[in-house]
## 1
Amino acid sequence: MDRPAALVPLKYVAVGGRGPEDVVADARGRVLTGVEDGRILRIDGLADDSPARVEVLAETGGRPLGLELLPDDALLVCDAELGLLRVDLREGIVRILADSVAGERLRFCSNVVALADGSVCFTVSSRRYPLDQWIGDIVEHTGTGRLLRLAPGSEHPEVLLEGLQFANGLALSSDESFLVVAETGARRLTRYWLSGPKAGQGEPFVENLPGMPDNIWRGAPDGPVWVSLAGPRIPPLDLLHRAAPAVRAAAARVAVRAPYRPTGTIGVLAVDDRGTVVHHLTRHRSGFRLVTSVCEAGGRLVLGSLRERGVAVCERPDPK
């Protein structure tokens, strides 16, 4: 991997709520996000010198995380408390698409993409820990993350892939032949084949990432997959992951009770469909921390965070 370039901040925009965990951009350069109190927000004017405008589109009543815009002015939402949702952005009406799989409640939906055939694929980060104890799953290294698919008209998701280490961000390849899944706890991107001779199989796509991947986003089929890095590599954590299960479980019990203090090192990557890293941007001693998402809007990079009360706007590198 090439030496990283600087992630250059331009401005910070408060959104009136805590934890804009995922950010996605629409065709007009507006950014949508969900915050801790359940509201779905749309932010306009991030590329302008004038103050940005924040509009409330809906309230889920839960905790929205990953988002996916649909062409019919609707939004798919992974809600950590309620499951997989569909939100009508014109009326603000929220409908639950799925809240369980094989009788098990969807505890921790994370990110979602829509396929051309009308089906929806989404991730579940953990079957053991809820969102407010996410650090426990990272420390224990449970491998209970899943990739699920909901067929058109169905209310019952099927399991495509399991045993994932904190399954998180999700994006489609340009030709929809495979999905890219971020495994936060393993510092890797995994490929799941949707078609071709390897259909139904998962395999490593990009390994040994310089940080922990969170949400991932692709704005156009010919554009790169942007990967947010929620934190840098932590060698003691890598060592702990090789310890016995009982040791990891004991460490997790301590971790969920200790206050989490994110580091000041943040970063983002961009990869192509061959798994080649085309951009690696990083910033040390950043005041904006725990970057959990990134998207392009108005010629800028926009960063979201599970922790902050706004989004950060940064310079976008020249295309390669």
## 2
Amino acid sequence: MRKVLVTGFEPFGGERVNPSWEVVKQLGDLELSGAQIVVRQLPCVFGKAIDTLNAAIDEILPEMVICVGQAGGRVDFSLERVAINVDDARIPDNEGNQPVDETIVAGGPAAYFSSLPIKTIVSGLRESGIPACVSQTAGTYVCNHVMYGLMHRLAQPSCKVVKGGFIHIPYLPEQAAKHPGAPSMSVHTVLNALELTIAIALHTEQDLKIAGGATH
């Protein structure tokens, strides 16, 4: 049976939970759309996060990899379009590292694009009543770091992973309650969105060519 690796992060930035892991862990060992879902938690630590991801890919040999992270303040389930080759941390990671203007992969491309059918996924989620969008930036923190590391791995000729990408999700309601005015999305909604994302990604060979850009 083909396998899909889905990752979430440990809590960071003073939060007691990370919505990405709270949702992703519920997918562990499920079978969806003819694929076994395998989940792993990544540390919110520069360098170690990519090492942990690569070790999981080596162990599991997945057909597809989807990494998920928290984006407090966002209102949508956000499919990231691009990762850039720079670490520029506004806050330290969970081991106190705070790289500024450092490359992720020396000599690597300036950017990599997601190989998930991001516009088809967004369209499917919206049709199912789930707020979703194409995001034009994954930031410059550990989430972008991991997405770049993933896509760099997929770009290697020896890599057997067919598709990969990154998704940002809002706070959980219990987190937003401590950040007055911040939007949130329930575990149930995000879980439904992830299951639909996996199904669409596994069965879509050509992404839709529809507008998904931004004016700013």
